[in-house]
Amino acid sequence: MSSESTLARLSISLPADLFRQLDMMVEERELPSRSQLISELIRHALAEHEALIRPEEMLAGTITLVYRGERGRVRHQLAQTEAEFLREVISAQHVFLEDDQSLEVLLVQGPAIRLKELCDALRRVRGVQQLELVTTTALLPPLHEHGHEHDAKRKGTGE
Fold first, then answer.
1. Backbone phi, psi, residue 58, to 5°
2. CATH code, domain carrying 131
């Protein structure tokens, strides 16, 4: 079955200024159509909505932080906070920016409520200037299958 057969058409009316801004955005991003941009915006809004109405929904995404201050102190407090959410924080990437600023991107996965709690805890660290969580309902493959290795060794297969 082709993707064309699974498409549904939507007709919307927009204020002229909003329509022009939408077209400018499509052109600036060099997208092939308005539909592609609108689909992206709707997916983002749906992921945000899921997080609000279904706090136990599993989500994957990124948390982007910009912070400044005593680099050692702030980085240490952020690391302590991330350690409290070890199951949700899959990886972290840190770079130093100009003027005593740092940028950190966390790859996260977990229930929406836990990701919100993580963001709230990170925001409480003095020196955090910006924080943005971007999520999707698509999940990362599990890193480990709990009990699989232990069960295989116990059964004597060693697999």
1. -75, 130
2. 3.30.70.1150
Look-up of token digits 């297969």 = 157
Same domain, 65 and 122: yes
**Structural domain count of the chain:** 2
- Cα separation of the two ends of the chain: 39
Q: What is the DSSP letter of 30?
A: T
Contacts of 116 (CB under 8 A, 6+ apart): 51, 55, 133
Does pTM surpass 0.85? no
Number of H helices, E strands in the chain: 5, 4
For 76-118, what is each residue's pLDDT tens digit?
Answer: 999 999 999 999 999 999 999 988 899 999 999 999 999 999 9
Cα–Cα distance between 101 and 129 in angstroms, integer?
Answer: 9
Q: CA 156, CA 108: separation in Å to the nearest integer?
A: 35
> What tens digit of pLDDT does each residue of 104-157 get?
999 999 999 999 999 999 999 999 999 999 988 778 787 665 555 544 454 555
**Structural domain harbouring 126:** 55-136
Average confidence (pLDDT) over 7-31 = 94
Residue in 121, 127, 60, 68 with CA at minimum distance from that of residue 99: 68
